[in-house]
């Protein structure tokens, strides 16, 4: 089986004005659809980031991929992670190729992708409600969920109600670092009052708190007896995480400071984290993510799953990968409910009581909606999005300089 055609298709989809520690999401987000076709017409697909760097790297190696077998991935991986691409753009681009190749093999052999990763350990994957403070959508009628302004703890409770009632989520994650830490603690308290004191809660300030502030907040969360699963990237460095861990009983999670295998050793040596949030897009593909799961189990670290502003192809890949990861014991993150656009036939994939059943169909179990891809590719071509959260917030609030820690 030989790959004869590689298609790199940038797309742009609608994005709500979600706030974070660095600024605000743009109104459009760029993603890239990768499609591989063999001589007999079998197709494999994947989805990844939409930056120029990733697109250029995908295109740079396309001539090599077009002469290769989807089984021959190791040499491609090594070629793409040399020099400046090591652990960065090369890893992300290779992850896209590996996912598409696994989808291709799965479709050719009638095998679900989870079986190509060693077999599933769960039939369904649980996800958390990913809650953001936000400005009002400029076109509320086009929003997938929660088009209203959410800039207070009380408004966040209403947003969470929509997520829980619409998708059945049982774990609530708050993207923090936006309001004052005290107001964000009050937000968690109101969520617990609304949905029950036992509801699992998470808070993610994206490194926007000092160790002193994070220690103070952790003590307050403990006093309130909230069911906090972990503090995610509360402080701005790995060293700061290690200092904080000496001051709190809550587990500390990261997707900012352990993002490659060469960062695992110092994290363990410094006792800096308890939970590593994986992401097959930048860990180098689904198989590398399975390796990460095994490594974390060796060091008794917890594993979860980070997300980004992804569409249905990535959603399917996340579900298959998580289904094959024994150490995943936390509900995975996902931006997916926020997205009003999709590129898959029959999309979006539906949550059932906060979980997604893992497809038993060959490969990823999803197919490209050609009309949707054409429409979103045209949107990208007409106005290529450039993600700059700080610049976008400048347009709304005047001069905005993100500084970590800000509190």
Automatic annotation (TrEMBL):
Catalytically driven reaction(s): D-glucarate = 5-dehydro-4-deoxy-D-glucarate + H2O
Enzyme Commission numbers on file: 4.2.1.40
Region (Disordered): 377-407
Pfam families registered for this protein in UniProt: MR_MLE_C, MR_MLE_N
Pathway assigned to this chain's UniProt record: Carbohydrate acid metabolism; D-glucarate degradation; 2,5-dioxopentanoate from D-glucarate: step 1/2
Source organism superkingdom: Archaea
Annotated keywords: Plasmid
Domain Mandelate racemase/muconate lactonizing enzyme C-terminal: 153-251
GO molecular function terms noted in the UniProt entry: glucarate dehydratase activity
Composition bias type Basic and acidic residues, residue spans: 387-399
Ranges in a coiled coil: none
InterPro entries found in the cross-reference section: DgoD-like, Enolase-like_C_sf, Enolase-like_N, Enolase_C-like, Mandelate_racemase_C, Mandelate_racemase_N_dom
Protein name per Swiss-Prot or TrEMBL: glucarate dehydratase
Species of origin: Haloferax gibbonsii
